[in-house]
Specification:
Blueprint lengths: L4 H8 L2 H8 L5 H13 L4 E6 L8 E9 L2 E8 L4
Antiparallel strand pairs: 1-2, 2-3
Helix pairs in contact: 2-3
Amino acid sequence: MSDKSKDFFTILKSQTFLCLIKADKIKIAELNAAIALLIKCNIDFDVFFTAGTNRKDPEAILTVYINPNTNIDFKFEFDRF
Protein backbone atom coordinates (compact mmCIF):
# COMPACT_ATOMS: atom_id res chain seq x y z
CA MET A 1 0.00 0.00 0.00
CA SER A 2 1.56 3.28 -1.07
CA ASP A 3 1.08 6.70 0.49
CA LYS A 4 -2.14 8.10 -0.97
CA SER A 5 -2.43 11.08 1.39
CA LYS A 6 -2.25 13.74 -1.34
CA ASP A 7 -4.98 12.05 -3.39
CA PHE A 8 -7.12 11.39 -0.34
CA PHE A 9 -6.96 14.93 1.02
CA THR A 10 -7.89 16.24 -2.44
CA ILE A 11 -11.07 14.15 -2.58
CA LEU A 12 -11.79 14.81 1.11
CA LYS A 13 -12.31 18.46 0.09
CA SER A 14 -14.70 17.43 -2.70
CA GLN A 15 -18.38 18.33 -2.53
CA THR A 16 -19.23 14.63 -2.23
CA PHE A 17 -17.21 14.10 0.95
CA LEU A 18 -18.08 17.49 2.44
CA CYS A 19 -21.80 16.70 2.15
CA LEU A 20 -21.30 13.27 3.76
CA ILE A 21 -19.28 14.66 6.65
CA LYS A 22 -21.82 17.41 7.39
CA ALA A 23 -24.93 15.20 7.12
CA ASP A 24 -26.72 13.75 10.13
CA LYS A 25 -28.16 10.96 7.98
CA ILE A 26 -27.08 9.92 4.49
CA LYS A 27 -28.59 8.17 1.49
CA ILE A 28 -27.13 5.08 -0.17
CA ALA A 29 -26.37 7.03 -3.35
CA GLU A 30 -24.21 9.49 -1.39
CA LEU A 31 -22.06 6.71 0.05
CA ASN A 32 -21.83 5.11 -3.40
CA ALA A 33 -20.56 8.41 -4.83
CA ALA A 34 -17.81 8.54 -2.20
CA ILE A 35 -16.86 4.94 -2.93
CA ALA A 36 -16.67 5.73 -6.66
CA LEU A 37 -14.24 8.60 -5.94
CA LEU A 38 -12.03 6.33 -3.84
CA ILE A 39 -11.97 3.70 -6.58
CA LYS A 40 -11.22 6.31 -9.25
CA CYS A 41 -8.24 7.56 -7.19
CA ASN A 42 -7.11 3.98 -6.47
CA ILE A 43 -7.34 4.48 -2.69
CA ASP A 44 -7.75 1.40 -0.50
CA PHE A 45 -10.86 1.24 1.69
CA ASP A 46 -13.28 -1.07 3.49
CA VAL A 47 -17.00 -0.63 4.10
CA PHE A 48 -18.86 -2.38 6.90
CA PHE A 49 -22.66 -2.24 7.00
CA THR A 50 -24.87 -2.92 10.01
CA ALA A 51 -28.58 -3.37 9.39
CA GLY A 52 -31.02 -1.22 11.30
CA THR A 53 -33.36 -2.37 14.02
CA ASN A 54 -36.51 -0.92 15.56
CA ARG A 55 -34.33 1.12 17.89
CA LYS A 56 -31.31 1.89 15.73
CA ASP A 57 -30.86 3.23 12.19
CA PRO A 58 -28.76 1.28 9.69
CA GLU A 59 -25.14 2.42 9.59
CA ALA A 60 -21.95 2.02 7.60
CA ILE A 61 -18.34 2.48 8.59
CA LEU A 62 -16.01 3.54 5.79
CA THR A 63 -12.33 2.92 6.58
CA VAL A 64 -9.91 4.67 4.23
CA TYR A 65 -6.28 3.51 4.23
CA ILE A 66 -4.04 6.50 3.58
CA ASN A 67 -0.65 4.83 4.11
CA PRO A 68 0.58 1.69 5.90
CA ASN A 69 0.38 3.44 9.28
CA THR A 70 -2.66 5.68 8.88
CA ASN A 71 -6.33 5.10 8.25
CA ILE A 72 -9.44 7.19 8.84
CA ASP A 73 -12.84 5.80 9.83
CA PHE A 74 -16.09 7.53 8.90
CA LYS A 75 -19.31 6.38 10.55
CA PHE A 76 -22.54 7.13 8.71
CA GLU A 77 -26.15 6.56 9.67
CA PHE A 78 -28.67 6.09 6.89
CA ASP A 79 -32.14 7.50 6.46
CA ARG A 80 -34.65 4.75 7.08
CA PHE A 81 -35.32 2.79 3.90
